[in-house]
Amino acid sequence: MPLYLSRFSYTPETWARLISHPEDRAEAARSYIESVGGKLHGFWYAFGTHDGYNLWEAPDNVSMAAVALAISGGGALSSFETTALLTIDETLAALRTAERVRYRAPGE
User: What is the superkingdom listed in this entry's lineage (predicted)?
Assistant: First the structure.
């Protein structure tokens, strides 16, 4: 199954709720991805541009998109971005295929 890396940031209101009532949000994330047949591989909080990161496994892009849409629509996040991750073999296949793409730079 494909892997996906998500970056998220909470709203100030969400942080205030978590300060008042701390909870392990990894359990919620696990239930979201499992509802579409996927798996949560990791959930981390961080300093910096994003408040946290998730590593997910999902059956396909539609399943991951459904989870991302449901989470984004919940209103607790100020941002949510997901990146599909490629395996080494997928990247090698893309590199081999790229040779057949006849790219032309603008103006050439």
Answer: Bacteria
Give the dihedral of Cα atoms 44, 46, 50, 53; nearest 10 deg: -10
Instruction: Indicate the burial class of 63 (C-beta count within 10 angstroms; 0-12, 13-18, 19 or more).
Output: buried
26 close to 40: Cβ distance less than 8 angstroms:
yes
pTM score > 0.85 for this model? yes
Per-residue pLDDT of 43-53, as tens digits, reads 999 999 999 99
For 72, residues 6+ apart whose C-beta sits below 8 A from its C-beta are 80
Q: How far apart are CA 37 and CA 59, in angstroms?
A: 7
Tokens of 18: 């978590």
C-alpha to C-alpha distance for 4 and 41, rounded to whole angstroms = 10
Helices assigned H by DSSP within 1-108: 12-20, 25-34, 61-72, 88-98
Structure tokens at 20: 């008042």
